[in-house]
Amino acid sequence: MIIEPKIRGFICTTAHPVGCAWSVQEQIDYVCQHGKIAGGPRKVLVVGASTGYGLASRVVAAFGCGAGTIGVFFEKEAEPRRTASAGWYNAVAFERKAQQAGLYARSFNGDAFSDEIKQKVVEAIRKDLGQVDLILYSLASPRRQHPRTGQISKSVLKPIGNIYTGRSLDVTTDTLEPVTLPAATPDEIEQTVSVMGGEDWEYWIDALEKENLLAPGVRTVAYSYVGPEITRSIYRDGTIGKAKDHLEATARKLDERLRKYGGGRALVSVNKALVTQSSSAIPVIPLYFVLLNKVMKEKRVYEDCIAQIYRLFATRLYAGGPIPVDDKGLVRMDDLEMREDVQSAVCRNWEKLNDRNLAQIADLKGYHEEFLKLFGFGVNGVNYNVDVDPDQKLLSASS
């Protein structure tokens, strides 16, 4: 079938398998061009491995460190006259490239919050890898069914204590629009922490530790975001911020536990703001993105997912010596985004922003290109007029 992008608001309901495969290859090429990372991990588990920072982490671990990888994600396979999700095609492409390179790669498609998936992964690690020396937690989900209570929680992005009124970007018309968000209820805060906090991350470490699957010197890293003052009231000081506080508290608790494994570590990496499927749905955030990306590209400090994660591995996690952290124990990979000159420029543009100058001071073109590329569209070298088979299978599905 001929596959075209079908966009509804901030969602693309189709994905292109060839375009996704080319995007994965671009990430692999970036890693190979920048060289092997000495002393990197050899046996890696990535929870949330099919898109964004999770996919980039799997690529860097495999092609930058020569690691065998297990990836966990929840994606949709193709159905009659419907494509699979982009994350599914990404995982298929990654497995094929890993196999061609002689690298172990196994994937599990299912609810990462569930005990069932955890047990399947535990069994695969015991059988195939023996132990893991790096666990990356990059899970992004709007809901979670608690594996112990069965309770379903849904995350919300709302301010706490006060109503938020501001501006956002209508990505379908490239115009500014007013946005008002009501203050979160205590129950909404609790549910958001359940979905996006650190409890599930800790459950993964519990499951691995119980079966003696943590290697000496094991490291585990969860990904987070802090952001600037512009977004603070709805992000870091809002419901998502409460979840991130819980994630960071979990890291401190896990760090104490893992030090007994030959100096193991548990850390939170605060990464740069990027265009993702989930972030596109967050009010205000896309507007900040298009202003930020314009400034960072002009200053030649812009990084995409793969550049960010390669730098995390090469200059932070496996650079030799103590891992550099800030006064809160966080690995700050958002250092370029938060540079004073970058944020000053973004703030100046934010203050003077209107519909007339939006196209001049914001990277609207780049935003739409990045958004489409998430789904395998607009990739250089891909002929989108050719019939392709949307039904792609994981090589590890039968293993």
Feature tags:
399 residues, alpha/beta, Rossmann fold, two-stranded antiparallel ribbon, globular
CATH superfamily: NAD(P)-binding Rossmann-like Domain
Mean pLDDT: 94
CATH architecture identity: 3-Layer(aba) Sandwich
Return the CATH class.
Alpha Beta
Number of E-type strands: 13
Q: In angstroms, what is the radius of gyration?
A: 20 Å
> How much helix is in the residues?
40-55%
What distance separates the N and C termini?
A: 29 Å
In N-to-C order, the SSE pattern is EEHEHEHEHEEEEEHHEHHEHHEHHH
What's the structural blueprint in terms of helices and strands?
Blueprint: E1 7-8, E2 11-12, H1 17-34, E3 43-47, H2 52-65, E4 68-73, H3 86-100, E5 105-109, H4 115-129, E6 132-137, E7 143-145, E8 152-154, E9 164-170, E10 175-181, H5 186-196, H6 199-210, E11 214-224, H7 229-232, H8 239-258, E12 265-270, H9 285-298, H10 305-317, E13 331-332, H11 340-352, H12 358-361, H13 364-373
Parallel strand pairs: 3-4, 3-6, 4-5, 6-11, 11-12, 12-13
Antiparallel strand pairs: 1-2, 7-8, 9-10
Short description:
With 399 residues, this protein is an alpha/beta fold. Helices cover 41% and strands 16% of the residues.
Question: What does it look like?
Answer:
The chain has a single domain, classed as NAD(P)-binding Rossmann-like Domain (Rossmann fold). Helix content is 41%, strand content 16%. It has helices at 17-34, 52-65, 86-100, 115-129, 186-196, 199-210, 229-232, 239-258, 285-298, 305-317, 340-352, 358-361, 364-373, and strands at residues 7-8, 11-12, 43-47, 68-73, 105-109, 132-137, 143-145, 152-154, 164-170, 175-181, 214-224, 265-270, 331-332. The strands form four sheets. It has a seven-stranded parallel β-sheet, with helices on both faces. α2 (52-65) packs parallel to α3 (86-100), α6 (199-210) packs parallel to α8 and α9 (285-298) crosses α11 (340-352).
